[in-house]
TrEMBL record, chain A:
Entry's Gene Ontology molecular function annotations: 2 iron, 2 sulfur cluster binding; metal ion binding; oxidoreductase activity
Origin superkingdom: Bacteria
InterPro entries cross-referenced by the UniProt entry: 2Fe-2S-bd (IPR002888), 2Fe-2S-bd_dom_sf (IPR036884), 2Fe-2S_ferredoxin-like_sf (IPR036010), 2Fe-2S_ferredoxin-type (IPR001041), 2Fe2S_fd_BS (IPR006058), Beta-grasp_dom_sf (IPR012675), Diverse_Oxidoreductases (IPR051452)
Record-linked Gene3D superfamilies: 3.10.20.30, [2Fe-2S]-binding domain
2Fe-2S ferredoxin-type domain segment(s): 1-77
Source organism of the structure: Rhodoplanes roseus
SUPFAM superfamilies assigned to the protein according to its UniProt record, in alphabetical order: 2Fe-2S ferredoxin-like, CO dehydrogenase ISP C-domain like
Segment forming the signal sequence: none
Coiled coil segments of this chain: none
Protein's name according to its UniProt entry: (2Fe-2S)-binding protein
Keywords tagged on the record: 2Fe-2S, Iron, Iron-sulfur, Metal-binding, Oxidoreductase
């Protein structure tokens, strides 16, 4: 079956089997290998991507269902300012070890900050509950997301003050 | 004692310098992972690669009557007979009494667990390969399965491997006068403890890609493994390709924790097949395969008796540990590793002179058991530390004070335990004192008094202490009866002509931060910027021979090797620099990418330029080039012992059975810390896995031997809301036996958490007559225990 959608800003058309997942499609010929497969049944979150700006599990999303959609993987956020801040915070707070959960964790954190703004720690942890990390015990991840969140909020309020 | 290759001569660090040992250096490897540019096995892009799906046994125990191939199977489906002349894996201990068995790469006659591989199926995609696998029809003659420990111990059960029964090995460690201790004791406490079978759950599964390289005439095997050199050695023996024509590469590895620290049947089958094909083949383990067919962990039943005096001083211990090791013995550890370790370390950090232990390994129709973070230690710690709390309750003392009284004291170091381990250094009791202060025992007790009994939520406090044998060397592996002795580690340190440094190490880095910490060691010795140092590892073609990353050994062993090599290389750098500066070599120091002598200095780049490109500028008699290869063995063949005490406060909801962790503190000692940030990350990550062990993780089987947890909906691992941020205090007693005084510490966090949490939950529920001695303590188990206790009280 033919499907056309936008992947990281580029229009693509693919001829796929109905059973082909979005993850397999973008990892395969498009080499978006930041999309990691940790369970292939929608629990671990390592394959998290953005579909039309919302986070989604690419391992349980069928590629054929995406005609006309905008799909963004971590590769597509290379120049995004908030993602740059998150990457720096993950490094500073030792928010990664083996790196396998990291792309999915970054995309989830990016979404959380954009949608929710400032969050208490317990809410932040709930927001990350759909992404499994087996290495870090989450402390570094939570600290990193909190730091990026604070910085983002400060920048936003500075921008709104400047706008007034 | 085997003689170490040379004294380390690398003293503990007095004051950390920036970028060197002791500094919180941010990690070199982070940039590629944060960009999504990690290159894991499934990401390799080698033209013509065909994907593998394994046909695996759907039954626990059966003879294979026949296998019917579908149309089109020719050249796409491969059985054991199609792999050529290969040997089955035979993982044995050299210890007398060990019963060996063969583990074929693919099952041909008999299957012994659900998930055992039978055939390799190839397709352009994994989906196509799975379609093919589904069309193969296997006619099984089902045999009665042996599933649980009690069945495996029953002589009437069918024998899996043609032995008289299903007992693989019995060890009987111990010493001292236990009978005298029993007679002298005022208090004797006996309990039975169970730790459930677990899956390891690296977030990336296992995986193998292999092809024959026509130009180099070698078989290339990419594997998501923790020990590429060792895998090359054993693969060569099994499939008949000599080691110099075999290259094993571990690319980026998405977590290991022990499950990638074994020879895998899939590695053998794929390597054997690849040498007969003209194209690369790849298998990527999916989660279902990981949860049912990869090496699993734990499943212990331990009966422990302690004899103590009226104050709770432990006079003697008696233990029987039975471990269900599953269907086969895994190379190189053997099926007996778990039971032997549990029985061998049950005296913990305490000065206990009398001990009688028995470790029993049984086989069953479950997935084979392999190492998982902590190996036997989480179970040994859980067992002993639970019993210490019961002794404390019986003699009416605070559990942490009882621990302090029983511990090996600093003035007893080095201390030889009753089972022959040599504790090297430290103040064990101080870890209890520090963590007790951090958790604020009086405040927790006051809160308990206020809250417990007023509603459904009860507070509990739990402690657990342990020692962690790390970087064990030659003596230990010989004592354990391993067929290969993992006594050392190796590194090459080489400059490039433009003045940069490359470390080539035989370990494999999969989250431990070794691309940074080994660079810090080189920075310590050579004055280079660690951010500039390239650490290459995980590839038999890029480093000298070594053993890999496991048993909390890499920082001690590879760090020692890098330190020694850098120290030796530094001497040569100083000689050349002295010649260029016209000073004495003894007056030269290395710092900030320069060789410095008083007010004069020369950049390292000028030294490397002379060494590689201008031999005319070298001192008379000095050889060109700058590289050095050395090995390292710790001075004690039983390694360096890290230790810690954990303290945790929980709130147990007696209405729902849910356990919430309110506070978690750790006081630990891993000797000299190379990078405290990374140490804290390892402690925190280990505790998280220990929380899973205590509260969530279990791989149950039904009576037919079917594994019941095959997805993340059934097998629960902790998420961000379940794992608190752990408060950590560092004690730093350098080991006298290692370079810079480093002790390993990668497993420690996971060792004490199950014990500490179970102690806390029992502390909360003890007044209700509840005692829980089995992991994981799921809500169902807690509610059942509460119900039983109520029924008991009503009688």
């Amino acid at each position: 079956m033919k499907v056309s959608f936008t992947l990281n800003g580029d229009p693509i058309t693919a001829d796929v089997e109905p059973r082909t997942s979005l993850a397999d499609l973008v990892r395969g010929e498009h080499r978006c290998t930041s999309v990691h497969l940790g369970c292939e049944h929608g629990v671990c979150g390592a394959c998290t991507v953005l579909i039309d700006g919302k986070i989604a599990r690419s391992c349980i999303t069928l590629a054929v269902s995406l005609d006309g959609a905008m799909v963004t993987t971590l590769e597509g956020l290379a120049d995004d300012a908030l993602m740059a801040r998150l990457r720096e915070a993950f490094r500073t707070h030792h928010g990664l070890q083996c790196g396998y959960c990291t792309p999915g964790m970054l995309i989830t954190a990016h979404d959380l900050i954009r949608r929710k703004g400032a969050l208490a720690e317990a809410e932040l942890r709930q927001g990350l509950a759909g992404n499994i990390c087996r290495c870090t015990g989450y402390a570094g991840i939570v600290a990193a997301v909190a730091a990026a969140m604070d910085e983002h909020e400060t920048t936003k309020s500075a921008a709104s003050i400047a706008a007034e | 004692m085997a003689a170490p290759s040379a004294p380390p001569a690398l003293a503990a660090i007095e004051a950390p310098r920036p970028g060197c040992i002791g500094d919180r250096v941010l990690r070199n490897e982070d940039a590629r992972f944060l960009a999504g540019h990690g290159e894991y096995l499934a990401d390799l892009d080698i033209p013509g690669t065909r994907e593998i799906a394994f046909l695996r046994s759907p039954v626990a125990h059966a003879r294979i009557r026949s296998i019917d191939m579908p149309p089109g199977a020719e050249g796409r489906v491969f059985l054991l007979k199609d792999l050529g002349d290969i040997h089955p894996v035979r993982a044995v201990l050299t210890t007398p009494g060990f019963r060996g068995s063969d583990y074929p790469a693919l099952a041909a006659d008999t299957v012994r667990f659900v998930g055992e591989p039978i055939a390799i199926c190839l397709g352009a995609t994994r989906a196509a390969a799975e379609d093919l696998a589904q069309e193969i029809v296997v006619d099984f003659d089902e045999l009665p399965p042996v599933v649980e420990i009690e069945q495996a111990l029953d002589p009437a059960s069918p024998s899996l491997h043609g032995w008289p029964d299903n007992i693989c090995f019995v060890s009987t460690p111990g010493g001292g006068e236990v009978d005298a201790a029993a007679k002298a004791a005022a208090v004797t406490v006996t309990r039975e403890f169970r730790m459930a079978r677990q899956c390891v759950v690296s977030l990336e599964g296992r995986g193998v890609l292999a092809y024959w390289d026509r130009r180099l005439q070698e078989l290339v095997v990419y594997s998501s493994t923790q020990q590429p050199h060792v895998i090359r050695t054993v693969l060569a023996k099994l499939i008949g390709v000599p080691e110099h024509q075999l290259r094993v590469v571990a690319p980026d590895v998405g977590g290991g924790f022990g499950v990638k620290n074994n020879l895998q049947q899939e590695e053998v089958a794929i390597a054997a097949l690849a040498r007969r094909l003209k194209f690369p083949i790849r298998w990527v383990e999916d989660r279902r395969e990981h949860l049912i067919a990869s090496p699993q962990a734990r499943e212990h039943r331990v009966r422990l008796t302690a004899h103590a005096d009226a104050r709770g001083k432990i006079l003697g211990l008696e233990a029987e540990a039975v471990v269900n090791a599953g269907a086969y013995s895994i190379w190189p550890w053997s099926a007996a590793m778990e039971a032997n370790m549990v029985a061998g370390i049950l005296t913990g950090p305490y000065a206990i002179d009398a001990y009688k232990g028995r470790g029993v390994t049984v086989v069953s129709n479950k997935a084979p058991l392999g190492p998982y973070r902590g190996v036997g230690r989480p179970s040994a710690c859980f067992t002993l530390e639970r019993l210490v709390d019961e002794i404390a309750a019986k003699v009416g003392r605070e559990p942490h004070e009882l621990r302090i009284d029983n511990m090996v004291r600093p003035e007893q170091m080095p201390y030889r335990t009753v089972t022959g381990k040599l504790f090297d250094s430290g103040d064990y009791a101080e870890s209890v004192r520090q963590v007790a202060a951090m958790i604020d025992v009086p405040a927790v007790r006051a809160r308990q008094a206020r809250q417990n009994g007023t509603g459904p939520r009860r507070i509990g406090l739990g402690f657990a202490s342990y020692t962690e044998q790390t970087a064990h060397g030659t003596d230990e592996w010989i004592a354990r009866g391993l067929t290969e002795v993992f006594g050392y580690e190796t590194a090459t340190v080489r400059f490039t002509p433009d003045g940069k440094l490359i470390i080539e190490a035989a370990i494999q880095n999969h989250g431990q931060g070794l691309e940074t910490t080994l660079a810090q060691v080189a920075a310590q010795e050579l004055g280079v910027d660690p951010a500039d140092v390239v650490v290459r590892h995980g590839d038999t073609a890029v480093s000298p021979y070594g053993m890999g990353t496991f048993a909390s050994r890499s920082m001690v062993m590879a760090g020692g090797a890098v330190g020694r090599a850098s120290r030796q290389l530094g001497e040569k750098v100083k000689r050349i620099a002295a010649h260029l500066l016209q000073v004495k070599p003894a007056d030269v120091t290395l710092a900030n990418n320069c060789a410095v002598a008083g007010a004069r200095s020369v950049p390292l780049k000028s030294v490397t330029d002379a060494a590689f490109l201008h031999p005319e500028n070298l001192p008379a008699g000095e050889d060109p080039c700058l590289d050095e290869t050395t090995t390292f063995q710790p001075l004690s063949g039983t390694g360096a012992f890290a230790y810690a005490t954990h303290a945790v406060v929980v709130e147990v909801d007696t209405g729902t059975g849910l356990v919430e962790i309110l506070d978690y503190a750790v006081a630990h000692d891993c000797g000299t810390m190379v990078n405290p940030m990374i140490v804290e990350g390892q402690v925190q990550g280990g505790v998280a896995q220990g929380i899973g062990n205590a509260l969530l993780e279990e791989s149950p089987y039904d009576s037919g031997g079917q594994p019941l947890a095959s997805t993340f909906a059934d097998y629960l691992v902790p998420g961000a809301p379940e794992v608190p941020t752990v408060r950590i205090a560092h004690l730093e007693t350098p080991s006298p036996f290692t370079a810079y005084g480093i002790k390993g510490m990668g497993e420690g966090g996971a060792i004490a958490a199950p014990a500490a949490i179970l102690n806390a939950v029992n502390d909360a529920l003890r007044p209700l007559g509840v005692e829980l001695n089995e992991t994981p303590i799921t809500p169902k188990r807690i509610l059942t225990a509460l119900h039983d206790a109520r029924t008991e009280r009503a009688r």
